[in-house]
Amino acid sequence: MKTLTIDIRKAELRDAAAIADVHQEAWQGAYSGIIPHRALTGMINRRGPNWWANAIRRAASVLVIEIGGELAGYATIGKNRARELSQQGEIYELYLRPEYQGIGLGSRLFAEARKKLSASGLRGLVVWALEENAGALSFYEGAGGRDIAEGVEVFDQKALKKVAFVWD
Fold it and tell me: Distance from CA of residue 115 to its chain's centroid?
């Protein structure tokens, strides 16, 4: 029997290509049929290994989750960008490769992201999700998030509603 280890840590430069792969797979899985194809492809293509390496170099807070040495997902975290919300921390992105979804890894990454934000002195948390992304809505509701605000994102002239989930 082989035991797989699960490790959550701060991203390193060597992770950039793997994060770009996770980003591509997760975004295609989550947003195909929701975000117009041209806009989605453009967004994915802009976030290649060099983009992620620069984000890591700039000291962006990027966490990765590995299972058995393979990068399974990532989260980006920092200060809340929505001034109208009182929560101080924000998870900007939390994505897993499709084959790692639904087995508890997202919950572990989410919990670690919350812990890092709290350790940085940021009280409360906000996460935005597109309303048509049923998987994300279900995940954040299941994690105890309260749906308290709405906004709009525009992709190639298609307006999509987004929902803010908060934790105090």
Answer: 15
- The CATH architecture one would assign to domain 6-167 is 3-Layer(aba) Sandwich (3.40)
Q: For the segment 149-168, what is each residue's pLDDT rounded down to a tens digit? A: 999 999 999 999 999 999 99
Report which residue type is found at 91. I
Q: Where are the domains of the chain?
A: 6-167
**Cβ-based neighbours of 61, under 8 Å, separated by 6 or more:** 10, 76, 77, 78, 116
Question: What is the C-alpha to C-alpha distance for residues 157 and 40, in angstroms, rounded to an integer?
Answer: 13
Is the four-CA dihedral 43, 49, 51, 52 of positive or negative sign? Answer: positive
Of 71, 69, 57, give the one whose Cα is nearest residue 12.
57
CA-wise closest residue to 168 among 112, 107, 93, 117: 117
* Model confidence pTM above 0.90: yes
